[in-house]
Amino acid sequence: MGIANNFWKWLGVESDVEEEIIELPAVAGSGQDIKGGNNVVSIHTNKNMKVVVCEPQSFEEAQALADHLKNRKQVILNFETTPPEISQRIIDFISGTVYALDGQSQQLGKSIFLFAPSNIEITRDSRSLMRRSMGSFDFGGER
What we know:
- Helix content is 31%, strand content 13%.
- The chain is an alpha+beta fold.
- It has a domain at 51-121: SepF-like protein (Translation Initiation Factor IF3, 2-Layer Sandwich).
- A four-stranded mixed sheet has the order 1-2-4-3, with helices on one face.
- It is elongated and about 85 Å long.
């Protein structure tokens, strides 16, 4: 130890730190040690994308639907036979779940909704948008 180290130790600033090196074993069956391994990750990790289609009848089903979203599955909900007050509660709950997961939602019909997690992007077909906007024009009094 030098004079400077003794001075810092006398002031109580220096502390002795022991460094411990732990070697990890090679991955079993890979034939490579960890230091020389590849850093390649497949972007196609979920080859079997799943869509859950549901016609909920009670609010108690909302938690199971939220769990599907947490497990990265798309959820399509049909509320045609669901009472309106229950439909609204389920939509509110699932919308909050989608927001928390950075996902997206889209109304597909009057009572059909699509909820998707963050790994799914929802896009609209440009042709359907054109048909919708063209249908709102008045074509000179044709009835």
